[in-house]
Amino acid sequence: MNKKYELTGETMERDGYTFHQIRALKDFDCHGISIKAGDIGGWVEEEGTLSQTGESWVLRYAEIHRGVSIGNNTIIGNDAYIGNGAHIGDGVSVGKRSSVCDGSSVGNNTHIGDNVHIGDGVRIRDGVQIRDGMRISNGTTINDGVQIDPGAYIGYGVFVRSNAHICLGAHIGDGSCIGVGASVGVEAFVD
């Protein structure tokens, strides 16, 4: 098997964990980004986290913890954080300075914008669009086809059903349930 990347030998210690920097060994494209042999990527806690096949890549300064699985044709942005045991599906893009915390899962063909925080144990299904600068708290479930606009906040244990639209700056309180196809208005507060 031709390897896609190698560990550079550079390590970083953070909070008792050791991360290894990666370097591309061949040219490939991922989400419109050309990765060239020799390009330096992000940091992985263990080599098997990022598959040696397919077109997935971890951009520089991103931090990928132990037990993470990253699907094919998935890009993890600069300075992103993927926590222990998280699962990132196929065709996903995670923006710069975004975090997907411990035990969370992100379904296939999902877009996570820049500066997004996804808490522990969050379940995001397929085809979800999460725009920049928003927060999804622990234990929340976001079903297929949901669109979440910039600046929204989704509280703890929320359930957002398929094809809902959470508009700009909306605040969804803890334990709320948003129905199938519902639209939560600009700067609305649901509690």
Give a written overview of the molecule.
With 191 residues, the protein is mainly beta. It has strands at residues 5-14, 17-24, 28-30, 33-35, 40-44, 57-58, 63-64, 69-70, 75-76, 81-82, 87-88, 93-94, 99-100, 105-106, 111-112, 117-118, 123-124, 129-130, 135-136, 141-142, 147-148, 153-154, 159-160, 165-166, 171-172, 177-178, 183-184, 189-190. The strands form 4 sheets. The chain has an 11-stranded mixed sheet, with no helix packed on it. An 8-stranded parallel sheet has the order 6-9-12-15-18-21-24-27, with no helix packed on it. A 7-stranded parallel sheet has the order 8-11-14-17-20-23-26, with no helix packed on it. A hairpin with a 2-residue loop joins strand 3 and strand 4. The radius of gyration is 17 Å and the shape is elongated. The mean pLDDT is 95.
What percentage of the residues does DSSP assign to strands (E)? 35-45%
- Reading side by side through the largest sheet, how are the strands ordered? 1-2-5-7-10-13-16-19-22-25-28
Number of helices: 0
Which regions have little confidence, pLDDT < 50, spanning 5+ residues?
Answer: none
Based on CA inertia axes, which overall geometry fits? elongated
Number of strands: 28
Q: SSE string, helix = H, strand = E?
A: EEEEEEEEEEEEEEEEEEEEEEEEEEEE
Radius of gyration (CA) equals 17 Å
What is the straight-line distance between the termini? 53 Å
Helical residues, percent: under 10%
Mean pLDDT: 95
Pairing-aware structural class of the strands and helices?
mainly beta
Biggest pleated sheet: 11 strands, mixed
